[in-house]
């Protein structure tokens, strides 16, 4: 996947600002179920927030990298325990895609 341009990242961050986390990663860490749920959310919404409960900053960073790699997504922004993930859907659903639904926010 080609790296996102600065403009694309900025637009995704603007849209992401209005979103709530849809996937929560708890104490058990990165499981198959978490990866499956993240994939499903990315396919539906393209741009999602994930909240990671781990206290250790390095453990969080490692989980984010592993999750992005496992799902083929790109980490657009990391703030504290929240990461904004983006993955272009093969077939965009205008009713579910956050890029379509929140396009008016990124002008």
What is shown here, in short?
The chain is an alpha+beta fold and 107 residues long. Helix content is 41%, strand content 21%. It holds the Pfam family CRS1_YhbY.
From the structure above, extract its key features.
alpha+beta, 107 residues, RNA-binding, four-stranded mixed sheet, 4 helices, Translation Initiation Factor IF3, RNA-binding_YhbY
Q: How does this model look, in words?
A:
This is CRM domain-containing protein. One of its GO terms (molecular function) is RNA binding. It comes from Acinetobacter ursingii ANC 3649. Residues 2-98 form the CRM domain. Keywords: RNA-binding. With 107 residues, this protein is α+β, with helices and mostly antiparallel strands. The chain has one domain: YhbY-like (Translation Initiation Factor IF3). It is built from four helices and four strands; from the N terminus they run αβαβαββα. Strands 1-2-4-3 form a four-stranded mixed beta sheet, sandwiched between helices. Helix 2 (32-45) links the parallel strand 1 and strand 2 (47-52). The model has no long low-confidence stretch (mean pLDDT 91).
């Amino acid at each position: 996947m080609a790296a996102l341009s600065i403009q694309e990242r900025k637009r995704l961050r603007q849209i992401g600002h209005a979103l709530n986390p849809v996937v929560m990663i708890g104490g058990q860490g990165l499981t198959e179920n978490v990866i499956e749920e993240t994939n499903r959310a990315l396919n539906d919404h393209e741009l999602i927030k994930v909240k990671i409960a781990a206290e250790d900053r390095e453990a969080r960073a490692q989980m984010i990298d592993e999750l992005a790699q496992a799902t083929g997504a790109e980490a657009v922004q990391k703030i504290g325990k929240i990461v904004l993930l983006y993955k272009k859907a093969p077939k965009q659903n205008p009713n579910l895609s956050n890029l379509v639904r929140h396009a008016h926010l990124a002008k």
